[in-house]
Specification:
By secondary structure, this protein is an alpha/beta fold. Helix content is about 35%, strand content about 15%. The protein is built from 24 helices and 31 strands. The strands form eight sheets. An eight-stranded mixed beta sheet has the order 1-8-2-7-6-3-5-4. Strands 10-16-14-11-13-12 form a six-stranded parallel beta sheet. Strand 24 and strand 25 form a beta hairpin. Helix 5 crosses helix 6, helix 13 packs across helix 16 and helix 22 runs antiparallel to helix 23. The radius of gyration is 30 Å and the shape is globular. The N and C termini lie far apart (about 65 Å). The mean pLDDT is about 85.
Length: about 850
């Protein structure tokens, strides 16, 4: 019987290529196969399906009851094997290929079976900026057409450059390996032009797959929609995959593009709309209850970060999020260089009135950035590995006239450098710059060999001679083109360089443009991606404020992806999925038009740690916080008899909650501390006291270190003296002597500092469990007296600098017990999609309406 099952199972798999699993079972019954064999076949297929559903990566949130039919590539497939073969030839490792195979298989398993009678599916794939999203959706398209999808439409951003780049990639990886299997509706240099007789492309006689790569442009989409409608009944059996690349751009809440995309989908009786983006903020704020809308109601996929990818967190570090301790989060690489605020007026117009006639100057920081680019390019020529191209990006404005104004100063700088190359003084200057940079970021840490200046200097004349100065914008004729040999270029641009387009061999970025939306800011990070062969060399020059924004954005990203993982493990559906997006005082999550259905999310402090890591270092604020801490301790000492103390820890138990509230309202929290807001903390504590009788009593811990001298002690009161703790500040933003970001204040053991003999190796869940057992309704507040002269710890000198505060700094950590029953929530500064109706300087979008 086993042999019979094996034979019939192979037939069942063949039936699946032309029918749904239910249809394949009916086919077996027509052959009068024994029901016991059919049952065994179904069990085997279900085991295969379960294997796909339970893949650890990518993480998915899926609508209840959604069938999984695709279980992976099969013998006889032609498109996916061709893609795999090309990628292997490009040097992809076997593990990277396996990861791509797994993730694309999981995504295709969430699409509808092409033989279903009708379907309108909405899905979202969340990737990383410059992380290979194009390769992912190319692989998904390849596997989908191998199983019977007929039409593939790719919406490729709003610029010709990205559309052309996407068309070239898809032709190379899908069409050229199997030319007889494809018909193209668009060409490399031409967007969609309606061909005659649309029915001929979809009739039964035409067995080829149809590829269409279009911009998100009103004229183009209108022509496509009208053309598809003319195909009429021929589309009834045309399973279609619509891939929206950069789906947060122009798709959501736009007056023309959004309805036109929906019009294209309405023309297709069998379609899957698959949104791809690295910044899904707008997509997750779409109204899920809107009929025919594009909210990802059927599934959300969180792609894993590929090995070797440079992302926001890797470059800028981030704050710790719930469940993390200081040791869990890196500071980021020492690759960010500061542009002082005083430089900005010389490299970008500060008002609209200054745009006309603006003439930039080559500031010291811009000169250093360009010179380092030439040095890094020469070093890459010595190595001879990785990308053959080398690019520098200068991004200061969206205005094309500002871009053009950089041409002459940059040409003059290149000419000046060429003339001075023989000067010993200039060579010493370049050597000092190179040695400074290579000592900040060690090549050996990235598995690369350090290049000495003497090795690269002989290549500098070649680099300068080949270096092109390119203005890449919607008006320029001389654009970045990587198809005709190795490129060395300094590219000045705006929107055309800030969305989707890959800057090959990007080594240096000079970036001062400020924007107000998370998604726009994140997409501008063209420096994210892969740096094979030169991972130690990238540098980014930007203002300290922008560096802080990117650091904050890294935290937002981490929380968003964590929420996807949490919802997956809790077996939630996309309609339950109101992902919380942390707000920032100076940033919008996305454009205001896209946030019309967003609401402030209710949040709870239950089971969480809250800690200060931003500090105002002005004398007045530091003195205010010292007095707040001392007043708090004096009040506690007048009421609480139970005190346990050593040089590095003093514990007060049974502290009344009103003393805690008084302290929170007298302590000056930094305005950027989005979680540590006294009004929210106070409201939450009062609600817990009133509604549940919890948090009436607190434990106060004055946490210090073992002091080496009297100077290293801090007195909260005459009897409460502890050793100062050391917390150096991050290098980013260090030029602002009135501000410090220490990243993380509390270590994990600090969360049980009031519990005798607590195991310091406890993880987060262990800490919560222990606190629930020992102090189920008691809060913990920990004060830290931070040494004003704190120095970086050994091994942290590259990312940290001394605190250099005028007074000692008081840090505050709070640990809230996890409620045993329901918890009180407070309105928190997060936004999310409004699910209440569900039962159960900005981007230039003028090209959307441009005539084609």
């Amino acid at each position: 019987m086993v042999d019979d099952i094996d034979d019939w199972y192979q037939d069942f798999v063949k039936f699946l290529e032309t029918d749904t699993p239910e249809g394949a079972v009916k086919m077996l019954r027509r052959w009068r196969i024994d029901e016991e064999i059919i049952s065994a076949i179904r069990e085997r297929h279900e085991a295969e399906v379960l294997r796909i559903r339970e893949l650890e990566e990518p993480r998915t949130v899926v609508t209840d009851g959604r069938d999984t039919w695709y279980t992976g590539p099969k013998a006889g497939d032609s498109c996916w094997p061709a893609v795999e073969r090309l990628l292997r030839g490009d040097g992809w490792s076997e593990e990277s290929l396996r990861s791509l195979d797994r993730s694309s298989t999981r995504i295709v398993s969430l699409l509808n079976h092409p033989k279903e009678k009708r379907f309108q599916t909405r899905g979202l794939v969340v990737g990383y900026v410059q992380s290979g999203k194009t390769t992912s959706f190319t692989s998904v398209a390849a596997k989908a057409v191998d199983r019977g999808y007929k039409l593939v439409i790719v919406l490729a951003g709003i610029h010709n450059g990205l559309r052309r780049q996407t068309q070239a990639r898809l032709v190379q990886q899908l069409v050229e390996p199997n030319p007889t299997q494809w018909t193209q509706l668009t060409e490399l240099e031409h967007d969609f032009t309606p061909p005659a007789n649309p029915a001929a492309f979809f009739g039964a006689q035409n067995r080829t797959h149809v590829l269409c790569v279009v911009k998100k442009n009103a004229t183009v989409l209108r022509k496509l929609s009208i053309w598809l409608k003319k195909a009429g009944a021929y589309l009834q059996d045309c399973p279609t995959l619509v891939i929206d690349d950069e789906a947060d751009q122009a798709t959501v809440a736009t007056k023309s593009i959004n309805p036109l995309i929906r019009g294209v989908l309405d023309s297709l009786p069998k379609n899957v709309y698959l949104a791809y983006t690295a910044s899904p903020f707008a997509n997750l704020l779409i109204d899920p209850a809107e009929p025919g809308g594009l909210y990802p109601r059927d599934f959300i996929v969180n792609l894993p970060k590929p090995e070797g990818h440079f992302g926001t967190e890797v470059l800028f570090g981030r704050e710790s999020i719930e469940g993390e301790s200081a040791e869990d989060v890196d500071d980021g690489y020492d690759m960010i260089r500061s542009i002082p605020d005083t430089d900005e007026p010389f490299v970008r117009p500060m008002t609209k009135a200054e745009v006309e006639g603006f003439e930039p100057e080559i500031t010291d920081t811009l000169r250093s950035a360009v010179e380092y680019f030439w040095l890094a390019t020469a070093a890459r020529l010595v190595r001879g590995t990785g990308k053959k191209h080398s690019t520098m990006l200068i991004h200061t404005s969206v205005n094309t006239s500002v871009h053009d104004s950089f041409r002459e100063p940059l040409l003059a700088l290149r000419s000046e450098a060429s003339k001075k190359l023989d000067s010993p003084e200039y060579r010493r200057h370049l050597r000092d710059l190179w040695n400074t940079e290579t000592s900040s970021v060690r090549a050996e840490d990235f598995g690369e060999r350090k290049i000495e200046f003497e090795e690269l200097e002989e290549h500098l004349p070649t680099v300068l001679a080949r270096c092109r100065i390119i203005m890449d914008n919607s008006n320029s004729q001389d654009r970045l083109d990587y198809d005709n040999g190795p490129v060395i270029a300094i590219a000045v641009g705006g929107n055309t360089l800030s969305r989707g387009l890959t800057l090959e061999g990007l080594a240096v970025s000079y970036f001062v443009r400020a924007v107000s939306a998370y998604d726009t800011l994140l997409q501008m990070g063209r420096w994210f991606g892969f740096r094979h062969g030169y991972a130690d060399l990238p540098r980014i020059w930007m203002t300290d404020e922008l560096a802080r924004w990117f650091r904050h954005l890294a935290t937002v990203e981490a929380e968003m992806r964590r929420d996807i993982d949490v919802y997956m493990t809790e077996d939630k559906t996309p309609l339950d999925f109101a992902v919380r997006l942390r707000t920032h005082p100076a940033l919008q999550v996305t454009a205001a038009a896209k946030m019309k259905t967003a609401v402030k999310a209710a949040s709870s402090y239950g089971g969480q740690r809250v800690q200060t890591h931003y500090f105002d270092l002005t004398q007045a604020r530091l003195e205010q916080n010292i007095e707040a801490a001392r007043s708090f301790v004096r009040s506690v000492e007048s009421q609480v008899a139970r005190v346990e103390g050593t040089d590095n820890r003093i514990i007060y138990r049974e502290v009344p909650y009103r003393d805690v509230l008084a302290f929170l309202n007298s302590y000056a929290f930094h305005p950027d501390a989005t979680e540590a807001r006294p009004e929210l903390l106070t409201k939450y504590i009062e609600q817990r006291v009133t509604h549940a009788g919890a948090l009436r009593r607190w434990n106060l811990v004055l946490l210090g270190s073992t002091p080496k001298s009297e100077e290293k002690k801090f007195a909260y009161s005459g009897s409460a003296v502890v050793g100062l703790v050391s917390r150096a500040k991050l290098k980013e933003g260090a030029q602002d002597r009135t501000f410090a970001d220490i990243k993380t204040l509390m270590s994990r053991p600090d969360a049980v500092a009031d519990i005798p003999e607590a195991d310091p190796s406890l993880n987060e869940e262990g800490i919560r469990r222990l606190r629930r057992q020992v102090a189920p309704d008691t809060g913990l507040i920990v004060l830290y007296a931070i040494d004003k002269g704190s120095q970086p710890a050994p091994g942290r000198q590259q990312s940290r600098v001394s605190l250099e505060a005028p007074e000692h700094v008081i840090g505050v950590g709070l640990v809230f017990p996890r409620p045993s029953g329901s918890d009180d929530t407070v309105e928190y500064e997060y936004v999310s999609a409004d699910l209440s109706r569900v039962q159960l300087e900005e981007e230039d979008l003028s090209l959307l309406e441009a005539e084609e």
